[in-house]
Amino acid sequence: MSRKRVYFTEDQFQAVYQLVSERVDYLVERSIDLQDSEILDDYEHLLDAHTVLAEADKWVLCNEED
User: Fold this and answer.
1) Which domain holds residue 43?
2) Is residue 5 included in any domain, yes or no?
């Protein structure tokens, strides 16, 4: 599997992370409300992206001079 490297400012990262988190929260709530686990299966790629972003949020940040 190939990898891609993407650079964000802190504000950009937080905006993307918040957007994805809100969407994932909504999907989980809908899945529970409708008792339909297939909703989560349909958006597995978004859940995977959220997992990556959550892990990246723990990383130490470097500025452009580093």
Assistant:
1) 10-56
2) no
| Chain segment 1-52, per-residue pLDDT in tens | 798 888 898 899 999 999 999 999 999 999 999 999 999 999 999 999 999 9
- Which tokens is 20 given? 């994805």
- pTM score of the predicted model: 0.80
End-to-end CA distance of the chain: 28
Tell me, yes or no, whether 37 lies in a domain: yes
Structure-token pair, residue 45: 């790629």
For 44, how many CA atoms within 13 A lie in the half-sphere containing its CB?
4
CA atoms within 13 A on the CB side of 34: 11
Give dist(CA 48, CA 14) in Å, integer. Answer: 17
Q: CB of 3 within 8 A of CB of 33? A: no
